[in-house]
Backbone:
């Protein structure tokens, strides 16, 4: 199972873009990168996923490097409600197993 | 309508008791999971079922037994509860093994 590395914490000013990095150097060719977040003690919430192309949805954008060894989640205009723990995960498509690391605690400040 | 619902939301029980946590999803998904989040906030998969078939059993003590009566339900039964079982348990479902998962709101289990 591919392992991911994220900074433990980041701050972002409200209204600014939040860029959350993730390293996944051992990712295999057919493994997807998924991002989830957990707000306080709620259940984890799916944000976005990608294989090798950049992706965008109503919540965020995902930029994956050409060698697929790292990615960046971008929240274009962070709000106070985006304060959460953000998890970058490489999905094992044979088992569906999500391996959650420590994640990045994003604090959005007014 | 809640997509993935768990009951109860809170459960306080004494050591040695047997308890169950129920999970239901109304998304028509084929795959369901149980995750455990301990006091240090680490989330770890316990079980996954695909079309009612057990796919993952992550070295969970056999006091924990998942039961899937149909594809919409995956219940977790725990025998002889121990203090170390205190945690938040999350149920999740996904359309298949390689698609995004949707999580319930969790069941906070406290063993006293």
Residues:
């Amino acid at each position: 199972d591919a392992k991911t590395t994220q900074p433990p914490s980041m701050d972002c000013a409200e209204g600014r873009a939040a860029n959350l990095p993730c390293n996944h150097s051992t990712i295999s060719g057919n493994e997807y990168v998924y991002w989830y977040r957990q707000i306080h003690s709620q259940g984890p919430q799916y944000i976005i996923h990608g294989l090798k192309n950049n992706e965008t949805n109503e919540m965020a954008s995902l930029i994956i490097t050409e060698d697929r060894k790292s990615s960046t989640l971008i929240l274009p205009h962070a709000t106070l409600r985006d304060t959460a723990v953000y998890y970058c995960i490489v999905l094992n498509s044979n088992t569906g197993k999500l391996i959650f690391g420590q994640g990045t605690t994003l604090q959005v400040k007014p | 309508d809640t997509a993935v619902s768990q009951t109860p939301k809170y459960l306080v029980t004494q050591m040695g008791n047997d308890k169950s946590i129920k999970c239901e999803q109304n998304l028509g998904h084929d795959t369901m999971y149980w995750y455990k989040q301990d006091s240090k906030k680490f989330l770890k998969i316990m079980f996954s079922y695909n079309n009612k078939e057990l796919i993952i059993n992550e070295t969970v003590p056999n006091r924990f037994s998942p039961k899937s009566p149909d594809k919409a339900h995956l219940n977790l039964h725990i025998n002889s509860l121990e203090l170390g079982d205190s945690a938040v348990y999350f149920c999740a479902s996904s359309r298949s093994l390689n698609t995004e998962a949707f999580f319930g709101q969790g069941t906070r289990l406290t063993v006293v």
Remarks:
- The CA atoms of residues 10 and 106 of chain A lie 5 Å apart.
- Chain A touches chain B at residues 32, 34, 38, 41-46, 49, 85, 87, 91, 93-100, 102 (CB under 8 Å).
